[in-house]
Amino acid sequence: MEEVTVVIIGAGPSGLATSVCLNNLSIPNVILEREDCHSSLWKKRSYDCLKLHLGKEFSFLPYMPHPSTTPTFMTKNSFIQYMDEYVSHFNLCPRYCRTVESAFYDKASGQWNVVAKNKVSNEDEVYLAMFLVVATGENSQGYIPEFPGLDSFRGSFIHSSQYKSGREYVGKDVLVVGSGNSGMEIAFNLAYFGAKTSIVVQSPVHVLSREMVYLGMNLLKFLPMFFVDNLVTMLSKLQYGDLSRYGIVRPKKGPFHLKQTTGRSPVLDVGTMDLIVNKDIKVFPRISRIEGTNVTFENDKVWKFDDIIFATGFKTTIKDWLEVDGDLLNDNGMPKTPFPNQWKGKNGLYFAGFSSRGLAGVSMDAENIAEDINMAFGQIKLHHGGLEAFSSFNAVRLQRAASISAFASPATLEFFGLFSVTTQIPSNAFAAPALVALIPAFAEPVTSRDAFAGKGDGDNNGDAWCWSLQQSHHRFSSDGAPRGGFLDASDVIVYAAHAGCSRIHGSEDGDDDGEGAPPLPATSRDSFTDTDLGSLLSGIVVVTPLFVIFSLVLVPATITHRFSSDGVPRGGFLEASDVIVYVLVTEVLVWDGRDYEWEFGLREAAHAGCSRIHG
Ligand SMILES: NC(=O)C1=CN([C@@H]2O[C@H](COP(=O)(O)OP(=O)(O)OC[C@H]3O[C@@H](n4cnc5c(N)ncnc54)[C@H](OP(=O)(O)O)[C@@H]3O)[C@@H](O)[C@H]2O)C=CC1
Ligand SMILES: O=C(O)C(=O)Cc1c[nH]c2ccccc12
């Protein structure tokens, strides 16, 4: 039995990225992996001709953007090389050949109990962890639906995850079932190698080129989603014409809208459409039954096949080993909680890499999870007198924000869940770009602990309201519930310890061991009252005009959204940061251009927080 702070299950991009983010915060973690290598979907279960669909600026993991020499669309092998470098650069040592057989939360101990079979020693290993990160992948297990008569099929059949190349199918009659990206790419590859290829297309699907998606992703930075959807659909019509006579019908909803709301990707054409139009690839509707070598389709056509490749998608494996209440996962084994909160479960449970948003989504999850664990874990670390540095972590988040969404429209922000403030405040079409443009310039503190510990640039010009705005979108989901879920009094404790408030739990440091408050950095509150001429001037010239927009649009909207007229957060004071956000935001509104009177605000907030939370 081994006690660890965090157990991460899965050494794919999601698990590895989460580990890197945790390591950066000095939070101990162990990665368990069923295979004998990392990134096994890429290394073992994907076909040779695979290329990334999204450009490299949407496909990197935290702390390691691609160099300018990397081509925009990476091949499978160059992505695998990138993953190898990620693992070696950050000295990650996943524990391989560990198949997790069960994981459950033990209420009595407050710990996750994880049992993993070590496939080398053939022994069961037990891990006890405060936090459990499920990073086993959206594509953990190939899924083949039931077809009447499949047992009787006399040819051979495989799932797309076992397919390597059309080389093995030269001259054969091959049926590909499924018209997602795997099916369409495999069909192209089969035909390219000279197989007599057919494909089953059973529902409407958008067909776009990689360049159209690339254009769309970039336009989403400036333009609303409906506009980009219309434009991209128009381009698709121009390039491909009406494909319905070949059995390919466009969905009514736009491609980006569908991706955002259902996770379903458009098909990114790699040349399959030309082959379909030229009748090199035949399109069939849904299968009705299979008999011997014959497959009958819903249009009553019967065709003989040597091989079938089921490109019918994937399921997660979470339900096989995670023991939680039935409501957490949907039929495909994906977390039910909708984006952008899908990464967070209960009792220290997290889901990394289940946002259906490619590698950008993976990175966001890793960052959110590490930060959330750090907030929860921070309460424990506080007892040991330590305050962890967040700055490089925030830097990477901002780097991503800047690369994806500098001057972004609310649509992009929403698409990537970068700042859910856009979902809280519908009227921020102007404020969102300004917010994003400004945050890299000023933002540092993301949690209130940071702010207290003086992690801002300390110039009084941006820290305060950036922090308070970040708080409001960062700590609260779009429905106003705190993302943390737990009653996080640590923010108050930090301040209270500093200010000598002994109201929390009746002693100075929040426990009863008589040790007194932990020491705080000397910078703690001074940094917020310091000011210098340069930053003041830059504040006036750069910040003021945008600040006016913020004050008039964003801040009042935040307040009315979060707080009722008597200043109490809707739904009650949930945690100390509610109070602090309230105080800061109202102070920002009456800001006289020189001094926030931080001490007053924070003291009030802490006191209010103490008494609200602890009665
Ligand atoms: N280069 C890249 O970056 C690539 C990315 N991908 C991504 O990986 C993920 C998985 O893709 P993929 O493997 O294609 O899986 P998907 O889940 O995207 O597609 C599965 C397909 O199988 C069809 N299907 C399911 N059941 C049946 C059935 N009983 N009869 C006929 N058809 C059926 C589905 O149709 P229906 O819609 O009706 O359910 C759908 O067309 C996707 O996000 C995809 O975009 C995949 C390949 C390459
Ligand atoms: O992983 C997938 O689903 C892809 O095919 C890539 C992808 C991620 N996010 C997208 C948004 C629009 C189009 C394709 C993708």
Describe the protein.
With 615 residues, the protein is of the alpha/beta class. Among the domains are: 2-140 and 316-383, FAD/NAD(P)-binding domain (3-Layer(bba) Sandwich); 142-313, FAD/NAD(P)-binding domain (3-Layer(bba) Sandwich), CATH 3.50.50. The protein is built from 21 helices and 19 strands. Residues 380-399, 404-410, 417-532 and 571-615 have low confidence and may be disordered. Bound molecules: NADPH dihydro-nicotinamide-adenine-dinucleotide phosphate (NDP) and 3-(1H-indol-3-yl)-2-oxopropanoic acid. NADPH dihydro-nicotinamide-adenine-dinucleotide phosphate is lined by residues 50-53, 139, 145, 160, 177-183, 185, 200, 202-203, 265, 286, 311-314. Its EC number is 1.-.-.-. This is Flavin-containing monooxygenase. InterPro entries: Auxin_biosynth/cation_transpt, FAD/NAD-bd_sf, Flavin_mOase-like. The chain crosses the membrane at residues 533-555. It catalyses: indole-3-pyruvate + NADPH + O2 + H(+) = (indol-3-yl)acetate + CO2 + NADP(+) + H2O.
